[in-house]
Write a sequence for this structure.
C-alpha cells in the first residue's frame, strides 16, 4: 500500500522524511500529516470530547509544526514533539473552557457534585456514534472525562498511544516518577469507578 | 497529595505493583488478602477495557479528522512554503534567472535517492565567490571539485542516513557522481563541490 | 488590481500578467506557475498592495506566480515557475523570457526584464497526484 504520499521513495525512514520537511519539502510534510493526523485526532477527541475542537487541535498542531520544524534539532524526536504540541494545546483549551464555565456556573456546584463535570461533557458527545459502543467502553470514556485534565492526558498518552514515561514527563513538565504516580492514580480512579458501575 | 504519590491499598501494596503483575498468578500475600484480590479483579477489568478501547478507537472510521483538515494544513504549508535563499543562475538582458535553494536541494535529494542504502536528509547549499581559492579551506576527505565557467559555484552539503552495513566511501562516491550529473542536467550549471555527511544509520 | 488604464493606454498590468502567464504555461518544460505568499497577500485586496507600495506611479498586478508591472511604456514581468526535470531549467527559463518578451512586444509596450525564479524542479506527474 502506498501511504507515503506523493513523491517520496517507499522505504524512507521517518528521520529522513522529517529532515526533508525541515528543508521545506511539501511532499515530505504531507506524509507526516497523513501519518500523524488521525493519532492526534484520537488524542484530542478523547481529551476534549468534541469533534470540531479535536479537528482544530490537529490543524493548529500540524500548522505550528510546519512553521517550527526548522528549529527541531533531532529529526528522530518529531513524534514526541508533535504529541507534546497537541497535548498542550488540548490542555490550554480545557483551561479556557473551565474558565468560561466558571463564568456561567457557580463553581461551588461543580465542587459538590463530582458527576457534574462528566455529565456536562457527556452532553457534547455524538449520540449516534456512541450508541454503537459497548457499555464497557462507554463507562471507561465517561470515567476518563472525570479525571483532571493532566491525569487524563497522562493516561491517554500512555495507554492509548504507547508514549514513553520520559516523553510524557517532558510534555506534562513532571518527572518520569511523577508520570508513574499520575498513571497509577488515574488507573485506580477509573478501576474504582468501573467497579461501582457493575 | 504529592504528585508522585502512588495510591496504596489498606494492606500496604501499591496499585502500581498490582497493575504490573495482574497477568501473573497471585502471590502468597495476594491469595490471602481480600483488598489485593478486589484490586486485581478491578485492574484486570480496566486492562481489558483499555485494550478494547484502544483497538476500537484505532479502527473507528469516525475517529479521524475530515479530509478538509489535511487540505487546510497543506494550504497553509504551501502558502508559507520555505524556499530558502535564492541563487542567481544567470543575469542577461532579457532578465535574471534564479532558483530557490529548496528547488535545488530537492533536485539533489531526488538524484541521491537513486543510490541504494542511503536516505538523503537535510541539504545546505552555499555559494562560493567566483574568485575564492580552494587552498587553505577545510574540506572533508574525498571532496570533488568540478570546475565550470557558467553560473554560480555551488558548495552542496548533503546529510544522509545510511543503512547499517553499507560501505560508506563507495556510497558517498556514488552519491557525488549522481548529484554531479543531475545538477548540470536539471539546472544547467556545474555542481561545484559536493560534500556528503553521513549523520545517522537508519533501521531496515 | 489595476483596471485603470494608464497614460491613455488600454493595456493593463492585468492583461500583461495574463499574457505572460499563458505564454509561460505554453513553453515546453514548464510544469506550472507557483503561487507564493506574496501572491497570496496580493489576493487579499488592493489596499494591501497600496500599503506595500505607497505613492507608486507604477501599475502592478499580481496573480499566482506572476507579477506584471507597467511603468511608462515598459512592461516588466516576474514569474515563479516549476519546471520538468526532463528539461534543463536554465534553458526553459531562457525560452520563457524570450517568448514572454515577444508577446509583450505584440501589445505595443516595450518589453522590460522578464525575471524568472525556479521554485521547483519535478517529474511531470499524472493528474492523480497533488
Amino acid at each position: 500500500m502506498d501511504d507515503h504520499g506523493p513523491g517520496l521513495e517507499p522505504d524512507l525512514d521517518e528521520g529522513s522524511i522529517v529532515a526533508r520537511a525541515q528543508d521545506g519539502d511539501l511532499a515530505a510534510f504531507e506524509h507526516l500529516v497523513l501519518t500523524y493526523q488521525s493519532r492526534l485526532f484520537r488524542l484530542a477527541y478523547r481529551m476534549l470530547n468534541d469533534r470540531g475542537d479535536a479537528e482544530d487541535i490537529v490543524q493548529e498542531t500540524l500548522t505550528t509544526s510546519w512553521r517550527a520544524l526548522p528549529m527541531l534539532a533531532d529529526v528522530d524526536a518529531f513524534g514526541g514533539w508533535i504529541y507534546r504540541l497537541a497535548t498542550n494545546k488540548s490542555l490550554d483549551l480545557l483551561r479556557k473552557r473551565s474558565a468560561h464555565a466558571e463564568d456561567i456556573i457557580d463553581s461551588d456546584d461543580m465542587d459538590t457534585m463530582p458527576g457534574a463535570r462528566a455529565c456536562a461533557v457527556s452532553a457534547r458527545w455524538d449520540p449516534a456514534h456512541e450508541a454503537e459502543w459497548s457499555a464497557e467502553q462507554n463507562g471507561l470514556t465517561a470515567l476518563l472525562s472525570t479525571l483532571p485534565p493532566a491525569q487524563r492526558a497522562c493516561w491517554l498518552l500512555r495507554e492509548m498511544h504507547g508514549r514513553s514515561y520520559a516523553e510524557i514527563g517532558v510534555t506534562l513538565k513532571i518527572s518520569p516518577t511523577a508520570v508513574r504516580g499520575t498513571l497509577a492514580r488515574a488507573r485506580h480512579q477509573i478501576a474504582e469507578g468501573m467497579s461501582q458501575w457493575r | 497529595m504529592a504528585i508522585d504519590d502512588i495510591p496504596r491499598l489498606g494492606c500496604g501494596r501499591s496499585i502500581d505493583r498490582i497493575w504490573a503483575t495482574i497477568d501473573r498468578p497471585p502471590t502468597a500475600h495476594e491469595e490471602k488478602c481480600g483488598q489485593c484480590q478486589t484490586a486485581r479483579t478491578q485492574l484486570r477489568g480496566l486492562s481489558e477495557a483499555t485494550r478494547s478501547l484502544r483497538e476500537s478507537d484505532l479502527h473507528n472510521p469516525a475517529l479521524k479528522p475530515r479530509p478538509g483538515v489535511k487540505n487546510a494544513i497543506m494550504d497553509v504549508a504551501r502558502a508559507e512554503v520555505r524556499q530558502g535563499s535564492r541563487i542567481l543562475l544567470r543575469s542577461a538582458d532579457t532578465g535574471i534567472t534564479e532558483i530557490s535553494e529548496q528547488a535545488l536541494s530537492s533536485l539533489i535529494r531526488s538524484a541521491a535517492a537513486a543510490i541504494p542504502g542511503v536516505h538523503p536528509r537535510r541539504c545546505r547549499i552555499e555559494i562560493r565567490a567566483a574568485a575564492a581559492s580552494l587552498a587553505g579551506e577545510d574540506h572533508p576527505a574525498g571532496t570533488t571539485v568540478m570546475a565550470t565557467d557558467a553560473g554560480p559555484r555551488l558548495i552542496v552539503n548533503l546529510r544522509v542516513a545510511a543503512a547499517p552495513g553499507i560501505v560508506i566511501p563507495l556510497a558517498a562516491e556514488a552519491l557525488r557522481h549522481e548529484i554531479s550529473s543531475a545538477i548540470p542536467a536539471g539546472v544547467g550549471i556545474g555542481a561545484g563541490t559536493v560534500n556528503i555527511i553521513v549523520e545517522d544509520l537508519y533501521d531496515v | 488590481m489595476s483596471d485603470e488604464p494608464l497614460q491613455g493606454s488600454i493595456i493593463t498590468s492585468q492583461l500583461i500578467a495574463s499574457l505572460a502567464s499563458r505564454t509561460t504555461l505554453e513553453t515546453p518544460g514548464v510544469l506550472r506557475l507557483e503561487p507564493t505568499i506574496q501572491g497570496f497577500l496580493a489576493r487579499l485586496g488592493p489596499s494591501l498592495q497600496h500599503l506595500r507600495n505607497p505613492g507608486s506611479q507604477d501599475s502592478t498586478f499580481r496573480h499566482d506566480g506572476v507579477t506584471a508591472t507597467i511603468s511608462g511604456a515598459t512592461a516588466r514581468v516576474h514569474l515563479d515557475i516549476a519546471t520538468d526535470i526532463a528539461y534543463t531549467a536554465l534553458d526553459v527559463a531562457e525560452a520563457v523570457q524570450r517568448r514572454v518578451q515577444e508577446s509583450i512586444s505584440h501589445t505595443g509596450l516595450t518589453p522590460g526584464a522578464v525575471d524568472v525564479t525556479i521554485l521547483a524542479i519535478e517529474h511531470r506527474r499524472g493528474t492523480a497526484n497533488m
